[in-house]
Amino acid sequence: MHILISGAGIAGLAAARELGARGHDVTVVEHAHRLRLEGTPVDIRGDAIGAVDRMGLLARLREQRLRMSESSHFVDGDGEPVGRVPVAATSGADEDAHVEILREDLVRILAEALPDTVTIRFADAVRSLTDDDVSDGGGGHDGVRVCFDSGRTGRYDLVVGADGQHSAVRALVFGPEKDYLRHLGVYFALVDLPGDTWSDGVNTIHNVPGRLAGVFRYKDRTVAVFQFRSGPLDYDHRDPDAQKRILLDAFAGVTSWRIPLLLDAVRAAPTLYFDSASQIRLPSWHRGRAVLVGDAGYCPAFLSGRGTSLALTGARFLAEELERNGDDHTTAFARYEARQRPYVAFAQTSAEAGRDRLLPATRADLAARDAALRAAGSRPPVTRSAP
Ligand SMILES: Cc1cc2nc3c(=O)[nH]c(=O)nc-3n(C[C@H](O)[C@H](O)[C@H](O)COP(=O)(O)OP(=O)(O)OC[C@H]3O[C@@H](n4cnc5c(N)ncnc54)[C@H](O)[C@@H]3O)c2cc1C
Question: What are the residue boundaries of the structural domains of the chain, listed by start?
Fold first, then answer.
């Protein structure tokens, strides 16, 4: 089949690898000019480990594995440690059921594993699509006609929307984002820090009520991480200056720890990654010949720590079901969805616990969290079972 994938993030690259490896002719369009390598480490857990193993990538992922969570501390306004970030708050404690890896390493490993049947076209995006299955009930004209921003056109047997939380394919097929978005009341920003003097190897997080800032060193890179509580904000997802202004306003007047220096770094940074902790909840992830994978269909919010795992299991299940069901994409999509739903339900329900642990809302909540961290001290971390 000729398959178009929108988005070359984790879900798009994993789907391209899996579909291409099964002999499909796959085109990926990515609106950025290159693979996007920003991001903090991401977690691969639970059955996503099995999925990457069956993709033949687990050994390579383990080679690049990090152990960030084990060396992360909350600190007070003077930089004194308050307690370790509990391992279960950010990752699983079971070595075999969890791989923590730099997002850029995962992107590179997936990209390097793409077979020759896959082509990536950068700086282009889907502008419109007409699905014959939907427009004439599948009455003989089988395919999706696609127009791209570049002016190109194409005809595909299937279209996979893997274009993230603000998916263009989802908007075209299912309607506007506001109909499916559930905002969890938190924003997240990431800025590269120049030089190597910011971190002495211990990753640190400092909270003030409703906000946190942290400094993390990953291999040869240091980044500042910010989170803050806020209701939904109206801003342009592609305007970094607007996003910087929101971030600086959220931390205005905070002078504890290294926050003023970190805000200077935000002002000077050429770009930043900024998004909300939001979930995407759709009653179905497929319509006609279009199907959604990853955050586009079921973003669990970064607070869950499970978006990457969902993208990987989703890509794998979709490819397996298309293989099993031959040309019957309708059955394949339904079976993909049935297999993936329990993982999404678990991830989406666990997200809010992550928020309250990382971002206590009030001074009293923060004091209680810190007291619990100090008391937990050397106690072993508690883990939860996941599908
Ligand atoms: C640059 C970046 C940094 C991130 N950093 C973190 C992080 O630090 N922590 C964390 O928990 N999660 C982070 N994420 C999100 C995380 O990667 C995902 O939640 C998860 O891996 C699921 O992957 P996904 O492929 O569904 O979405 P994503 O990884 O977000 O990938 C979506 C891809 O689609 C592309 N795209 C978007 N719109 C279009 C369009 N209209 N046409 C074509 N392509 C489009 C994007 O450029 C991106 O490459 C980051 C995502 C990105 C893109």
Answer: 2-61+103-180+279-350, 81-91+184-277+355-376
Architecture of domain 81-91+184-277+355-376: 2-Layer Sandwich (3.30)
What tokens does 99 get?
């791989």
The kind and range of the H/E element at 148 are strand 144-148
> Taking the model in full, what pTM does it have?
0.91
Residues with CB under 6 A from ligand 1: 6-12, 29-32, 36, 38-40, 42, 103, 125, 162-164, 168, 190, 273, 294-296, 302, 307-308, 311
User: What stretch of H or E contains 330?
Assistant: helix 329-358
**Contact yes or no for 274/187 (Cβ under 8 A):** yes
Architecture of domain 2-61+103-180+279-350: 3-Layer(bba) Sandwich (3.50)
Whether 83 has a pLDDT exceeding 60, the answer reads yes
